[in-house]
Amino acid sequence: MKILEVSNVNKRFGGLQALDDVNLTVEQGHVHAIIGPNGAGKSTLLNCFVGRLMPDTGSVIFDGTSLLGLAPHEINQTGVSRVFQTPEIFEDLSLLDNLMIPALAKRDGAFTLNAWGRVDQDAEIRDQAEHMLEDVGLQDKRHLQSGTMSRGDKRRLELAMCLVQNPKLLLLDEPTAGMSRADTNNTIDLLKKIGERGITKVIIEHDMHVVFSLANRVSVLAQGHVIAEGTPEEMKEDQRVKDAYLGAGHE
Amino acid sequence: MDAIFLQILNGLDKGGAYALIALGLTLIFGTLGVVNFAHGAVFMLGAFCAVTLNKILTLSQRIRDESVTFFEAYKEVPYLEVWFGETGSTLIEYSVPISILVAIPVMLLVGLAMERGLFRFFYNRTHAEQILVSFGLAIVIQEIVKAFYGANPIPQAPPEIFAGSANIGAMLGMSEAIVYPWWRLVYLVFAGIVIAAVFCFLQFTTFGMVVRAGMMDRETVGLLGINIERRFTIVFGLAAVVSGLAGVMYTPILPPDYHMGMDFLVLSFVVVVVGGMGSLGGAVAAGFLLGVLQSFAAMAEIKAIIPGIDQIIIYLVAVVILLVRPRGLMGRKGVMET
Amino acid sequence: MIAPTTPRKDMVMFIVFAIAILTLPIWMAPLGGSYPDLLQKFAIFGLFAVGFNILFGLTGYLSFGHAAFLGVGSYTAVWSFKLLSMNILPAIFFGMITSGLFALIIGYVSLRRSGIYFSILTLAFAQMSYNLAYSVLTPITYGETGLQLAQYDPRILDAQATVEGGGIPLTNLFGLEMQGWPGFYFCAVVLIIGFYIAMRITRSPFGMMLLAVKSNQNRMNYTGLNTRPYTLAAFVISGIYAGLAGSLMAVTDPLAGAERMQWTASGEVVLMTILGGVGTLLGPVLGAAIIKYFENIFSAINESVLHAFFGFLPDFIENGLVNVASLFVGKGWHLTLGVLFMVMVIFLPGGVIEAYDRIRKRFFSKETRSSAAPQAGDD
Questions:
Q1: What is chain B's mean pLDDT, rounded?
Q2: 3-state DSSP: chain B helix, strand, coil percent, rounded to 5?
Q3: With contacts defined as CB-CB under 8 Å, which chain C residues touch B131?
Q4: Residue C66, SS3?
Q5: Can you give the pLDDT of all 338 residues of chain B as single tens digits?
Q6: Do B312 and C115 touch (CB under 8 A)?
Q7: Closest approach of chain B CAs to the CA of C123, in angstroms?
Q8: Residue C159 contacts by C-beta under 8 Å, 6 or more apart in sequence?
Q9: Which fold has domain B2-57+96-324?
């Protein structure tokens, strides 16, 4: 079953054709990697999924609804969560609060004026948050101010914040960028572990090691255009992909 | 037609003051990223430079009044007149223009002191904290001035030859009704000269080039290994001089009192916002524009249609601009647009 | 480590707070501040600051125009006294309603921007209100003279209160006149209720979302939360608090003037909040009390008091010190306020509450460390 369908998406920035007639289909339950050299338009494409950018033409259909023209919070409410390149978390708040906020957003919607009940007495939300912290191995730090943690932990927290919403689609923007080899492997393990939940994932990634460990489908983007698509093994052998990367390397 | 022309003229001198203050504000904001709520107080300090110099020049001696013969009368005669006679009284008469010479070094010092003593510690703190600390500084400055000069406005006289009004209508062959005080005309020319000087300075000196580059992209200029810190200090001094001079020359138009700074500050901030944060040209254009708009709104015909419009026109413009075009009239896209 | 709060801890804090406020007349006596005029101010400005903190402390939006809502509340309350009844309940009710509506309109527009643009927008609106109150709105505000009661006001609900030759009736709560101590106790009870509500808001899911607004709006949007209604609700709530404070001012002293709306008045509430501790519950009340207390003390000091104070010193030193010190007292109280403002922002952005925490940590650091370890496990 197709969960995300991107058809004929174009985006121009001044004289630059950032996305050139992009077509992409993501199957339910798949881990779909989008790879490509720097400046290929990967992040632009991702931003079109979450309401940060509006494509000039084309359509983005998620689970039967069009995402175009929706605000970021509306898109999230349809079941799309996003992990950023640099972790976006609530740095002033404790880890527990960081997880309770998305849990509340999932349960109560985009705006609820619940100004009387005590949030720390909300057993359902608290349980969800605590369990999720355990799942990512941060339960010992739950009362810590999240901004004081290491970058790797922040990323884990951000991932947990997305997962606690139990999204239908998880978008990951270079989840291992700037990480050491050990941290990268930890992240891969973590992503594999959550892969067991059956959440569909779209990963933008540079690191081929990550792509080949996780993805079961790969699209290659170059100069705003999808030049190849297939299984990781196929892509390894594909001459067009090699050219795209080597070409970019020579420039 | 004549009425419109007169209103434009009437708005321009106030607009000149707005433009000069806003120029300093936006220089500081553009290069240093600092929101300075004490900038109005600097304008006020400039005005009080003129007051102080006038006080010093008119320090007087009590001498016997010879003209009164039937009893012993005394009169106060300024030392300058006693010592230099006619020359002395001319000096006193020209105390406002002379204050310019005094104000430049004084205001430069004020600016440097503010930057070194306070604002440099706030470059990396939030805008809210910058607003708050400079708000505190503004209160301190104005209360000190109040303690020394009292709460009442202190009128200053322009030199005799600029005292009357110019019949501009007659000069330009228009209606006789267009009469405009000479000093306002002087102020307008003066504001023009200062603005031109600042722009030339920024355009034609290496220092100015760095400052302009800094307004475009602070980080990169910092990376070039240019001593940004010292230049920041000088920019602060420059901004203080510009708005101090605006204050000096404004004294014959508006008798200075201790809270004139606050009154002008809020308006100047609005001017900066309308012109576009960090845009020097925008600040100047918006300053004159809003001055003129304000004077139009004060016309009886307009007030009859929308009562009270003269009181709120500037704020109204600011609200509309912020909502419709947050970068202001001439601001660059993406600069502080959220 | 952020110490988690519990309902019990909060209840203890609330009860201590309520007792402290109600016993103010007793324990302020040795400090020379035990008279209703001053203590009323504590309560009223405390309420104003508590409400302001819901906006500034929780969401981080710095409004420079909250005095406008205070003024609106005052004007409405006085009009309620004039037209309806000298009973204070309708006055307070309408004061809160009108200021809430004002806040809704101003907030709706201002919250389209954030950061300094938001501050300038609120400032612009407050200045507009102030200027209009002085000019075209004179039929409503009575401009410079201010809005006052008159003996022959209609007072349709209790016209019988107008006694021939009996002067202007007093504000009352079903007959209990709001002068002197009853006035203070009424304000104190309102403050305690207001504090309790603010506490509930802070601990609620809504309050948590407001903190999230301050921390990271971007993440909030991508978490499926619409930030604007949250900030607008916070803005309106704090506007209602300001209107409530304004109508209490009218209750204790039934007149209203435009100077209450000036932006320096808005600056004062910012200072109160910062002085006490932004984002804390007790801080704003504390800050308001400290400022009003010192305002009272400092503005009462004159040169002869200073001479007496420095009297033990040699004459020339005494005179010098008196000259310097007199800048800061009496009418120069604002100078002290300005200096205080700067000192707070520079050295103690967290306010008195943070200072207290730091001191406590320094002295009791051993205990907290040893008790914190097992706490992390259970709970």
A1: 84
A2: 70, 5, 25
A3: 62, 64, 116, 119
A4: coil
A5: 677 888 888 888 889 999 999 999 988 888 778 888 899 999 999 999 999 998 888 888 888 777 777 777 787 788 887 788 778 888 888 888 889 999 999 999 999 999 998 988 888 888 888 888 998 899 899 889 988 898 889 888 888 878 777 777 777 766 666 778 888 888 999 999 999 999 998 888 888 887 777 777 766 666 666 666 777 788 889 999 999 999 999 999 889 988 888 878 888 888 888 888 778 888 999 999 999 998 888 888 888 888 778 878 888 888 888 888 877 787 766 554 44
A6: no
A7: 8
A8: none
A9: ABC transporter involved in vitamin B12 uptake, BtuC (1.10.3470)
Residue C370 pLDDT > 50 = no
Task: Please report which helix (H) or strand (E) contains residue A32, including its range.
Answer: strand A31-35
- The enclosing H or E element of B267 equals helix B260-275
- Assess whether chains C and A touch, using the rule of 3 or more C-beta pairs within 8 angstroms: yes
Please answer whether residues B93 and B103 qualify as being in contact, where contact means their C-beta atoms are separated by less than 8 angstroms: no
User: Which is higher by pLDDT, A247 or C51?
Assistant: C51
Asked if B269's CB is within 8 angstroms of C120's CB, the reply is yes
Chains touching chain A through at least 3 C-beta pairs below 8 angstroms are C
Give the amino acid at C25. Answer: P
CA distance B106 to B243: 12
The domain segmentation of chain B, as residue ranges, is: 2-57+96-324
The answer to whether B162 and B182 have CB atoms below 8 angstroms apart is yes
- Are C343 and C335 spatial neighbours (Cβ–Cβ below 8 Å)? no
The answer to whether A79 and A49 have CB atoms below 8 angstroms apart is no
Name chain B contacts of C135, Cβ cutoff 8 Å: 308, 311
CA max distance for chain C:
74
Residue C317 touches chain B, beta carbons under 8 Å: no
Asked if A46 contacts A84 with a C-beta cutoff of 8 angstroms, the reply is no
Q: Answer yes or no: do C120 and B270 touch at CB < 8 A.
A: yes
Query: Residue C215's closest chain A neighbor by CA?
Result: A90
Q: Are C106 and C68 in contact (CB under 8 A)?
A: yes
ipTM: 0.91
Residue listed under structure tokens 């324990």 = C27
The 10s digit of each residue's pLDDT in A12-71 is: 888 788 898 999 999 998 899 998 887 788 888 988 888 888 899 999 999 989 998 899
Cite the DSSP H helix spans in B276-308.
280-297, 300-305
Asked if A110's CB is within 8 angstroms of C225's CB, the reply is yes
Query: One-letter amino acid identity for B49?
Result: C
- Point out the residue among C135, C263, C335 whose CB comes nearest to the CB of B140: C335
Residue type, B69: T
The backbone torsions φ and ψ at residue A203, rounded to the nearest 5 degrees and listed phi first, read: -115, 130
Closest CA to B327 of B290, B287, B248, B272: B272
Q: What does the domain layout of chain C look like in residue ranges?
A: 33-261
For residue C196, name the pLDDT band (cuts at 50, 70, 90).
Answer: very high
Which residue from B35, B113, B111, B138 is spatially nearest to C339, judged by alpha carbons?
A: B138
Amino acid in position C42: F
Non-local CB neighbours of B215 within 8 Å, separated by 6+ positions = B30, B31, B278, B280
Confidence at C163, pLDDT banded by 50, 70, 90:
low
Domains annotated on chain A, with CATH: 1-79+170-187+200-251 (3.40.50.300), 90-166 (no CATH)
Q: A79: left (phi > 0), else alpha (psi -120 to 50), else beta?
A: left
Contacts of residue C173, defined as CB under 8 A and 6 or more positions apart, other chains included, come to C87, C88, C89, C182, C186
Say how far apart CA C87 and CA B217 lie, in whole Å.
Answer: 61
Chain A contacts of C3, Cβ < 8 Å? 143
Cα B228 to Cα B238: distance, rounded to the nearest angstrom: 15
Distance CA B30, CA B235 (A): 10
Q: Do A81 and C214 touch (CB under 8 A)?
A: no
